Amino acid sequence: MSKAYSSNLTQWQWELIEPLSCRAFYGGKPAERAPLIPLAKPGGRDRQVEIWSVLNAIFYVLTQGCTWRNLPGDFPAWQTVYTYSRNWRLDGTWVTIHERLRDWVRSEQERKPDPSKAIIDTQSVKTAAMVNQSVGYDAGKQIKGRKRFVTVDTLGLVLSVFVTAASQTEREGGKVVLQRLKEKGKRIARLHTIWVDGGFTGDSFMMWVMDICHWVVRVVLRPQEQKGFVLLPKRSVVERTFGWLSWCRRLNRDHECLPATSETWIYIAMIRIMVRRLA
After folding, report:
1. What is the C-alpha separation between 191 and 213, in angstroms, rounded?
2. Is the model's pTM score more than 0.85?
3. What is the domain partition of the chain in residue ranges?
4. Is the pLDDT of residue 111 over 90?
């Protein structure tokens, strides 16, 4: 049993996502009662580690920003923890957990599971020294690293993520992240409006969104006559989400060799936020 680290899941938080828990939440449909974490595969020997401890170890890496090899000794072996984290990325488990928890949070806020409006924005972050794949230079923010394209609902909950080189333009990267959002199908059936900032302006981008995704793009610009900090409607929602992510040291700088792994860490960070809210 590990020490009581601040990143550990409590008993109530763990019960929301434990593999053996198939109970509905907030009146969920029968199809929503499937376990969030895959059960052990049939055949072979039984699992030798507790999934609760594995999740605590992953959240420790997320919040403290340490390397896998430097996990405290009271967690399971770092190779085991890393393998679970990687396998859940490849089979879509992290995204499945994230989608289900977001539906529950929206239900708790008396919102329908599928949002009607979304906000898109970008965040450029520096990469670690050993990262050399999908790295570019953002001339506007003068940052060499990667750019995170994130779409959120009006509560600030993440809908889709796309991580690429910082040199990627907002319009091209915006098409990718919105295409990923469109692929969710029935989960975004009510979506009709996308709020963007000035970086996404342009007839080609807006026409693409309208023709391919059938959504309306609304641009929120900063008033030119005002100086200093200005709280912009809708735009502040996604900025708040970036603020939530900054509390996780693993996300303050991009340490991942693969952009897909960086995307997964964003989902894991949101999972931790949502499960703490629900519990």
Report:
1. 10
2. yes
3. 11-278
4. yes
